[in-house]
Design a protein that fits this description.
This protein has three domains: 58 residues, no CATH class; 182 residues, Rossmann fold; 87 residues. Helices cover 44% and strands 17% of the residues. It has 13 helices and eleven strands.
């Protein structure tokens, strides 16, 4: 078996400057797949997944500082239809406010969003299929990667974005939308704004919301407030405002031990913190919501040390209500000043 010194020599020879322990883990896992006598098919899956993730990381790298919104929807939506117009308009609205649009690079809703975003304001992550989903003509080659596997594609459609808009679609769109909801419900992804956008007067998403409320929440398989983290609308203006507004004051979060740290753009007043404690006492496992500067571990990591904080011991069974707290933080008077 190759020891750490041999891996370290290989890494040094490649002139890799940082994160060497993680590179060593990747290399070791690859070697161990061989010593485990892993089947050829499993090795092909592993190799393709790593290669596809690398391609997507390189695609995103030049745009790391630009906020991104992912737009999902049917590849079969035709130009000139109300849904096509909605997708084009929501992408244009957010691009005008500085957002970059991420799509699956196919036709239909994806092409509409790419067109709406305009030149240089979109990236595409396509899937290789025997039919459909060839990259649309609006996607520039230098801002597009193609993938074999849905699981790597979904990861890369979601990992960089700070907002999501789903328009009506088929199994693929529903799969992507429920993946989002699952990640949010389980706390495996940071809170993000999610919009289910329909054509004017459409019932696609309201019908789904009724089903979720009546059948899923009604049978106890999800919490009654799980859909409260989602905006269902047929208004492009409302959809864009929801995505933008989510980040009005809230910036990010981090766990430090069992304490949840919310980083804000504007420091709340003592009166505002007291009001949040009254409104969200049921969200806490213990103690109070407290205003704070960066915690010691954040300072040592140089992790957004210029931002004010709220620190709390969150009851993790109430993760759905965290969205309501973020909404209240965004509505504070200091955030609107």
């Amino acid at each position: 078996m190759i020891d750490d010194e041999e891996f370290d020599r290989l890494i040094a020879d490649a002139e890799i400057p940082a994160n060497r322990s993680l590179i060593r883990r990747i290399l070791r896992a690859g070697i161990e797949l061989g010593t485990d006598r892993t089947t050829r098919l499993d090795l092909k899956i592993t190799a393709a997944a790593i290669e596809e993730m690398r391609d997507a990381f390189r695609l995103y790298a030049p745009y790391a500082d630009i906020p991104k919104v992912t737009v999902f929807g049917s590849a079969r939506t035709q130009p000139g239809t109300p849904l096509y117009t909605q997708a084009r308009d929501i992408a244009a609205s957010l691009a005008a406010q500085g957002w970059m649009v991420v799509t699956g690079a196919g036709p239909g809703i994806m092409q509409a969003a790419t067109e709406g975003a305009g030149p240089g304001r979109s990236v595409g992550i396509s899937i290789r299929l025997p039919f459909e989903e060839k990259p649309n003509e609006a996607v520039a080659d230098e801002r597009h990667v193609s993938m074999k596997y849905f699981f790597t594609r979904k990861l890369m459609l979601m990992k960089e974005s700070r907002g999501f808009v789903s328009l009506p679609g088929g199994f693929g769109t529903l799969d992507e939308t429920f993946e989002l909801l699952t990640l949010q419900q389980t706390g495996k992804a940071e809170p993000m704004p999610i919009v289910l956008l329909d054509r004017p007067g459409g019932t696609f998403w309201t019908g789904l919301a009724d089903y979720v409320e009546e059948e899923l929440a009604g049978s106890g398989t999800i919490a009654p407030d799980d859909m409260q983290r989602v905006l269902v609308t047929d208004s492009v203006v409302e959809a864009a405002a929801h995505v933008e507004g989510f980040w009005r004051n809230y910036d990010s979060l981090r766990w430090v031990g069992d304490r949840l740290v919310l980083r804000l753009k504007h420091a709340p007043t003592d009166a505002e913190v007291a009001s949040l404690n009254r409104e969200f006492a049921g969200l806490l496992a213990t103690g109070f919501i407290e205003a704070s500067g960066p915690l010691p571990v954040e300072t040592s990591d140089h992790d957004k040390t210029d931002l004010p904080r709220l620190v709390l011991n969150l009851n993790q069974y109430k993760v759905g209500e965290l969205y309501q707290l973020i909404g209240a933080v965004n509505a504070l008077g200091t955030a609107r000043a």
